[in-house]
Design brief:
This protein is of the alpha+beta class and 163 residues long. It contains 7 helices and 4 strands; from the N terminus they run H-H-E-E-E-H-H-H-H-H-E. It has one domain. Helices cover 50% and strands 10% of the residues. The longest helix is centred in the middle third of the chain and has 19 residues. The protein starts with a helix and ends in a 12-residue tail after the last strand.
Length: 163
């Protein structure tokens, strides 16, 4: 099962594909599921990789940090691992887990069970992204921006409509 998850994450080329893996990993580990979320890329303070406002259906990912990881990563799997961990963290918040310390612990557990402790996602889940990519510190504190990009076809599980 881990090898299948690893291959699918390595081959993923969209946020939606990675998010489907996040949802499967959570379902397998915690037995929980939620549909109907959307993803927005937006500039945030650079100490925040992503956020989910309680009660909303939106996950916001820090566009500046994502672009920095894309530029600094040595492989696609590193980028996909970063996206996986951020989306997993925020997805857990959307499922009602509020405490960040508890969420971080669950992220490590889910990553270990679905991808293994020797996977880049586990390193990202276990330490600060600024430790892995110290160059990101040169981005400065960052700030909330007004430009946002809504990612289309992010959560396809909620696309069935009765006509």
């Amino acid at each position: 099962m881990k090898e299948q998850f690893r291959k699918k994450l390595a081959d993923a080329s969209t946020f939606g594909e990675i998010f489907n893996l996040v949802k499967k990993a959570v379902k397998n580990t915690l037995g929980l599921h939620r549909a109907g979320l959307e993803l927005v890329l937006m500039n945030l303070p650079n100490n925040i990789g992503g956020l989910h406002e309680v009660g909303s259906n939106t996950i916001i990912m820090n566009k500046t940090l994502l672009e920095g990881v894309i530029e600094l990563a040595k492989s696609k799997i590193e980028v996909n691992s970063y996206v996986f961990v951020v989306l997993l963290h925020e997805y857990l918040h959307s499922l009602g887990y509020i405490d960040d310390e508890e969420v971080s612990s669950l992220v490590k557990k889910i990553v270990a069970e679905s991808l293994g402790e020797d996977h880049p996602a586990y390193e990202i889940a276990s330490t600060s992204i600024f430790t892995i990519y110290p160059e990101l510190q040169m981005l400065g504190p960052g700030k909330i921006g007004r430009d946002m990009k809504i990612i289309k076809d992010f959560d396809k599980d909620n696309v069935n409509y009765i006509l």
